[in-house]
Design a protein that fits this description.
- This protein is 50% helix and 10% strand.
- The protein is of the alpha+beta class.
- The chain has 16 helices and nine strands.
- It starts with a helix and ends with a helix.
């Protein structure tokens, strides 16, 4: 092994993070002051958390790789393998009672709930490998483009730990008991909580603010556990969709063809994820659709490529429920792959 290869080998052995001791970071200190002054957190407990938090450079690298640049073929191949579809069918069957009750309570069908969990974590198989605290300090304090958002999520994470009595906030005197005084906690510690590179958690990969606002104790045991409790996870995903306007049994997506000048139609596609024209209006612009005239929809052009590298567009109309899926992840590619996985699961039942 030559010298350069030896150095490279040593670099690869170094963990993809550096100890931070964020307790002395100015932004962390401001966040700590706010939690102490506004919500009666114990300063020492907070400082102990930030002292052990670590910066993870790999997270920044991942954030700078936009999946939206992928062709539809490339994106769907990540999520629509036969194995994931079969696992989704099994998930529906194994959790049929909880999924049925979630549909009765929130109006969201089992195959939709299962597809979200299937895309997010392969039905709980992959919950993430980064400590949530590390992901949030890395992005909140070291990723200027979205630092404000992730700093606020970090604040929510601290409050969530208080509400759910997660160590070191599992004592009454460690922080103000906000909305969950009845919680007995689940014995977890902040150091143990892992999730995605963006700090998303559990079966459904909720960010901290979504966990606080939409996670539910669906089995009534006094704990909102979306890490190990599939019942709570199923109810929480369904509640999230209901709170964002899901319409039971309504259309989600329709593939359409284009009669008019495709270059002109292309300028209207992907302008906004939110439905912005009626189907009748889209027809007047040369879009062939079989949906109801007064249904609101947005037009999307998905880039396709063939074996010769020739590009073309695949056009779809996304309706209100398609927009709701994008509230879970603001991506048209994500929403379409969830829809397709849900249809594949439903067809296999």
């Amino acid at each position: 092994m030559n010298f350069n290869l030896a150095i490279l080998f040593l670099v690869l052995l170094v963990p993809a993070f550096a100890s931070g001791d964020y307790s002395e970071n100015e932004k962390a200190k401001a966040l700590i002051d706010g939690l102490v002054n506004d919500l009666d957190f114990d300063r020492q407990a907070l400082e102990s958390v930030f002292r052990e938090a670590k910066h993870v450079p790999q997270i920044i690298e991942i954030m700078n790789r936009p999946a939206e640049s992928l062709y539809w073929r490339e994106y769907k191949e990540i999520f629509l393998q036969p194995e994931r579809i079969e696992a989704g069918i099994a998930f529906v069957k194994d959790n049929s009672e909880d999924l049925k009750r979630a549909e009765e309570t929130y109006g969201v069908a089992p195959h939709i709930i299962s597809a979200i969990i299937g895309v997010e974590t392969y039905y709980g198989k992959f919950l993430g490998k980064y400590r949530v605290i590390d992901a949030l300090v890395t992005l909140g304090f070291g990723y200027p483009r979205r630092a404000e958002f992730f700093s606020e999520e970090l604040r929510h994470f601290m409050i969530l730990a208080c509400e759910e009595r997660i160590k070191p906030f599992d004592r009454d005197e460690s922080c103000h008991r906000m909305n969950n005084d009845s919680s007995s906690g689940n014995g977890r510690s902040i150091d143990e909580l892992v999730g995605s590179y963006a700090g998303a958690m559990g079966y459904g990969q909720f960010i901290s603010s979504s966990y606080r606002n939409f996670a539910v104790d669906f089995d009534g045991d006094g704990i909102r556990d979306i890490w190990t409790n599939t019942t709570d996870a199923i109810g929480s995903v369904a509640n999230y969709f209901a709170e964002h306007g899901w319409i039971p049994d309504a259309a989600i997506l329709e593939r359409v063809s284009v009669e008019s000048d495709e270059s002109q139609v292309g300028e209207l596609a992907n302008e906004d994820l939110k439905p912005n024209k009626t189907v009748s209006e889209w027809r007047s612009l040369g879009i062939n659709s079989e949906s109801e005239d007064d249904s609101l929809a947005a037009l999307f052009a998905f880039r396709l490529d063939d074996e010769n590298g020739v590009e073309r567009n695949d056009y779809v109309l996304g309706f209100d429920n398609f927009y709701v899926i994008t509230r879970y992840n603001i991506s048209r590619l994500y929403a379409r792959v969830v829809y397709q996985l849900a249809m594949d699961i439903q067809n296999g039942l």
